[in-house]
Amino acid sequence: MIKCILFDLGGVVFNYSDMHDYVPYLSKISGVGIGEVAKIFSSKELDLLQMGRISQARFTSFIAKRLSIREDQVMFVRYRNLKGKLNLEVVRTARKVSRYYIVGYLTNESRGRYAGVRKALKPFDSIFRYRFSSCYLGLSKPSEKIYRRVLNATGFKPQEVVFIDNNRENVIGARRVGIKSILFTSSKDLDRKLRRIGVKV
Fold first, then answer.
1. pLDDT of amino acid 187
2. Candidates 3.40.50.12780, 1.20.1090.10, 2.170.190.11, 3.40.50.1000; correct CATH number of 4-15+84-196?
3. 80, exposed or middle or buried, with CB in 10 Å at 0-12, 13-18, 19+?
């Protein structure tokens, strides 16, 4: 029996994706190809930042040096806050399912970005009862450990939780611990996929 629905934020609740929005920005200002920027951006430093293990200043310096740009051009937090917009259709879906299930989110975010996310979502705090961010858990998706940590914190069994993410690896990671997971592609498709697994929408 499903009791809890967990949403990813970037690319699901927010119409913003680092690979589709931020990486092209870095490529444009640095003159480095998108593929190479993606490799640099997705290095272990990003993971360490999102787990709260290195500072924003250190990450900014790393990106600036690797791309030969000024540190003020990196704009990791500012660019997200400028470009990221709430996906109101997904928020409406979250509100609808919150009538029947406990709703929350599980996101990979740095502390700087997460502060902006919390501000944007403040009007919807009544919807998202559970709020999990990698920067405070010290773990990140798709590690199985982060899903187990969330299960322990909420008290739910894996089969009682549905997880929604736009990243296939994160979906696979959740499935490995027995959580029903949906690969997000669009708001309209999300409602259909939720109904398919028996979620009331």
1. 92
2. 3.40.50.1000
3. buried
